[in-house]
Specification:
Layout: H1 2-46, E1 64-74, H2 97-107, E2 115-126, E3 131-138, E4 142-145, E5 148-151, H3 152-157, H4 159-162, H5 167-180, E6 186-191, H6 192-195, H7 197-202, E7 206-209, E8 213-216, E9 223-227, E10 230-233, H8 236-244, H9 252-272, H10 277-284, E11 288-290, H11 294-305, E12 311-314, E13 319-323, E14 329-333, H12 335-343
């Protein structure tokens, strides 16, 4: 009996010692794992400063919302019925075979163009660090599809052929992250005539135009001032004039106008629409083709409204225009330069 009693006492003591070792040892191991995870998370957030697009700022623990708004314009459909100019002409020997095949394939589908991209506005709001960032991708930019350079609008016009499975949204998102390093949560498409309506609806949104907007009278050839330099109140009419007047040969200058007016309009949205943002979002979504919903708005409304008190930065992409085959001058984005520059503004 004493033997059994002694055995039970020894067993209980051994069990308690073993439990204490497991408890503290396991706790210590979990602490190490947790600290290691935190260390890896911080390394991901900081990045390594390299040129790789994948090493961009990560917002795993931040309240962040980013979106891309594709501003489009309807264009007259063009039926290419006499595409015989280059028939019988051999391509240079140094033309890669895959490009010949790609161009041939596109030639069968580029008969009609229904829409063109004028701009892709990109907004990222980080409520945690109170930083907001805006940039614009000009519609006359060069993109790459399957390793082949083409205009952004050529890719967009042939979207049903080029992106039959992934879809246009995936193409726009990959373009945005590739050019800016920003992962867009949602993509929307809006006609430019609908976009500018917001300026009149917001009322009293000010914008300082730094130089006259001029055009040339087609009959007399004389210069005509459409908008004079100075502070003006944004309306649908003058905003549309600024974004479509065609006075500059490229859309890069117009993109800066869109960046600056976009900051002012977003601030006005925070001021005027906060009490009824869900109803206003429902109204605005009637003009925008997007997968963003009023439910999404209710989830991110606090992040959206943090834009007003955040540190706002609006800057254009780095890059330069170059002569691109038979399509005139197109904007080639300096991807590494732009992504690395934008990192500092994203928090």
């Amino acid at each position: 009996m004493s033997f059994v009693k002694g055995f039970l006492i020894s067993f209980v003591i051994s069990f308690l010692v073993f439990a204490v070792i497991i408890l503290y040892g396991g706790s210590f191991a979990l602490t190490l794992i947790d600290e290691n995870d935190k260390s890896e998370s911080e390394e991901n957030v900081q990045g390594d400063g390299g040129d790789d697009v994948q090493n961009t700022v990560t917002y795993a623990s931040h309240e962040r919302f980013s979106f891309a708004l594709v501003i489009t314009d309807e264009i007259e459909a063009v039926e290419d019925t006499e595409n015989t100019e280059n028939e019988g002409t051999e391509e240079p020997d140094d033309t890669p075979a895959y490009k010949d095949e790609f161009d041939s394939l596109l030639g069968e589908f580029d008969k009609k163009y229904d829409l063109e991209i004028k701009y892709i506005g990109v907004v990222s709001i980080n409520a945690t660090v109170k930083k907001s960032f805006i940039t614009v991708i000009p519609g006359d930019s060069i993109t790459s599809v399957g390793g082949v350079d083409m205009s952004l609008n050529e890719a967009f016009a042939n979207r049903s052929l080029l992106f039959p499975k992934s879809g246009t949204d995936a193409f726009i998102k990959s373009t945005v992250v590739g050019f800016t390093g920003i992962n867009a949560d949602f993509v929307g498409y809006v006609d430019i005539n609908d976009y500018v309506k917001l300026a009149s609806e917001l009322k009293d949104v000010k914008y300082k135009l730094t130089s006259d907007i001029r055009t040339r009278d087609p009959e007399t050839g004389k210069r005509v001032v459409l908008l004079g330099a100075g502070e003006l109140t944004l309306t649908s009419e003058n905003l549309l004039t600024m974004l479509t007047y065609g006075g500059s040969e490229t859309r890069y200058f117009d993109s800066q106008i869109l960046i600056d007016t976009g900051k002012n309009m977003l601030s006005a949205i925070c001021d005027k629409f906060r009490p009824n943002i869900i109803a206003k979002a429902r109204e605005m979504l009637e003009y925008v083709t997007t997968d963003f919903t009023t439910t999404d708005m209710s989830k991110i409304s606090n992040i959206l409204f943090s834009f007003k008190d955040s540190e706002k930065t609006g800057t254009a992409l780095l890059g330069a225009y170059e002569k691109f085959e038979d399509m005139g001058y197109l904007f080639r984005v300096n991807i590494n330069g732009s992504v690395n520059k934008f990192k500092q503004y994203l928090g």
